[in-house]
Design brief:
Blueprint: H1 7-43, H2 57-62, H3 75-87, H4 92-103, H5 109-122, H6 137-146, H7 152-157, H8 160-171
Helix pairs in contact: 3-4, 3-5, 3-6
């Protein structure tokens, strides 16, 4: 059946949208008991994964398993990120691996880089862009200034003293 000016087609689209909206709302209403059950479970011990039914494909597409809570980066970890990036000029893959070796916890490159840019700002270093150098003497000077107060054992473990000696000899006028 054809109609004048496509009016019937437009009405049909609106009707389909309304039907779809009602369908979604009815599905949503079915989930209300499960949601309240979940909020009750949060206050009790969480069941272990082996006791939980495995989600169907449609459920897992909409639900995300929350990542386990990570401790904030310590001052030592923040210093280390700046030291290996600016001082030792390591790439992010190397930093990701070495961070886990030094601190015993995995941190993804995205998290490490985000912290790095926040530290640069906190330390008063210029933002990294086309007009500024990421690896600069100014950054290396900040590392030398910020090392005070860190444990000597930690600094030996990350080879800070060797870096300090080599960076000072390479920066000396010839």
């Amino acid at each position: 059946m054809t109609t004048v000016g496509g009016h019937h087609y437009h009405h049909q689209q609106q009707s389909n949208r309304s039907d779809r909206c009602r369908e979604i709302m009815s599905i949503d209403n079915l989930l209300i008991p499960q949601r309240s059950q979940l909020s009750v479970q949060r206050h009790h011990l969480q069941p272990t994964p082996s006791h939980m039914p495995s989600p169907t494909a449609s459920e897992s597409a909409f639900e995300r398993t929350p990542r386990e809570k990570r401790e904030p980066y310590s001052d030592q970890a923040q210093f280390y990120i700046m030291y290996v990036r600016v001082g030792k000029e390591k790439d992010w893959n190397q930093i990701e691996r070495s961070f886990e070796e030094v601190f015993g916890q995995h941190r993804a490159k995205d998290g490490l880089t985000a912290v790095y840019y926040r530290i640069r700002s906190k330390w008063g270093l210029p933002p990294v862009n086309k007009s500024s150098q990421e690896i600069s003497e100014e950054g290396k000077d900040m590392i030398r200034q910020r090392v005070r107060g860190f444990d000597q054992g930690f600094l030996k473990r990350v080879e800070y003293f060797e870096w300090l000696q080599s960076s000072q000899s390479s920066a000396a006028p010839r």
